[in-house]
Amino acid sequence: MDVLSDVIMTMRTGRPHSGRGTRSAPWSRRLTASEGAGFHVVLRGGCRLVPERGEPVVLGPGDVAFLPHGTAHELTDAPAAPAAADGGRHGPETVLLCGAYLLDRSRAHPLLSELPEVIHLPASPGRGSPLRAAVDLLASELEERRAGADAAIPALLDTLLISILRTWYDEHADHGWAAALRDRGISAALRAIHDDPARGWTVAELGARAGLSRAAFARRFTALVGRPPLSYLTWWRLTLAARLLTDTDAPLAAIAKRVGYGSPYAFANAFKREYGLAPGRYRLARSLPARDGDPVAEAAGTRLTAAGRRAAVRR
C-alpha cells in the first residue's frame, strides 16, 4: 500500500461525517478544539475563518480550508459579527460544506502532524481539478440525497481528504515529508517498508530499493523523513501494532508476528518503550466508548448520531 493511504488508514477511527448548510448574515459560529481533522468549503458567498492562533483567513466561493489538527476556530460572515449572532435571516447567504475525519492522535504520523494549523486552498484557474471534482460530487450528494448516498458520501469524503493532501503536498514539495514523497528513491524505500513491515529490512536493502549506496541512502532518508531508516521501520511497526490492538481482537503473538517480532516478549518490551504500556494494558485502555460528534461538522448543522457512533466503533 502507498504511504499516504497507509497513514490515513492507520490514524482514522470510524467514519467521516459532513453536512451542507446555509447561513444568512449576520452570523458567527465558534468551534471548539477537536481530536479530528475538519474542513470547510465555501460553495456560495464568503466568510472568514478565525483560528485561535494566527491570522484570519478570508474564504471565497470555491475555497477550501482544512484544519488537520482540529484547531479551535470561529467562522463568521464579517469581522464585527458577534459570536451569538448565529443563523440570522436577513443578510447575504453563505452556503458551506463542512465535515470532519475522526483521528487517533496517539498514532499520529509526521506526514500529517507536520502540516500547518490551517491549510487554505483558494479556488483558482487550473488548480486541483480532482479537488474541485471531489467537492462538486460531495456537495451534489449531500444536497440531493439520492439512492445510494449513504455509501457514496463516505467514499467521497475519503476522496476529498486525499485530494486536499495531494494538492498541498504538490505545492509544498521542497522539504520534509512532502519532499520525501516526491523523491523517487526515498519514496521507493518508504513504500517497501509499508508494503512489508514485518520483513527484516537492512539499510543496505532499502538503499538498493532507492538506488543509492548504503551511506548516501541513510543520510538522505534521515534528512527528509526525520529519523534513520531502521528507526522509522521500528516506529512504524509499533504504530501498526497499536492499530491492531485497538481495532482487532487478534492474539498478541499474532500481532507480534505480523509486525516483524520473533517473540511476544520482544514485541511487548518494544511496545512498552514506545507507548509506556504493555500491549494488553494498551488494548484495555483503548476500549473506551467513542466521543460525541465532532464540532467541525456541526458548523453545517450536522451531528454524529448515537447510531453513527456505534457504527464508528465497530469499524
Automatic annotation (TrEMBL):
A Pfam match: HTH_18
InterPro entries for this protein: AraC_lig, AraC_XylS_family_regulators, Homeodomain-like_sf, HTH_AraC, RmlC-like_jellyroll, RmlC_Cupin_sf, Tscrpt_reg_AraC-type_HTH
Stretches assigned to the HTH araC/xylS-type domain: 187-285
Source organism: Thermostaphylospora chromogena
Record protein name field: AraC-type DNA-binding protein
Keyword Acyltransferase found: no
Gene3D superfamilies: Homeodomain-like (1.10.10.60), Jelly Rolls (2.60.120.10)
Sections of the chain in a coiled coil: none
An example Gene Ontology molecular-function term: DNA-binding transcription factor activity
Keyword DNA-binding: yes
Keywords assigned by UniProt, alphabetized: DNA-binding, Transcription, Transcription regulation
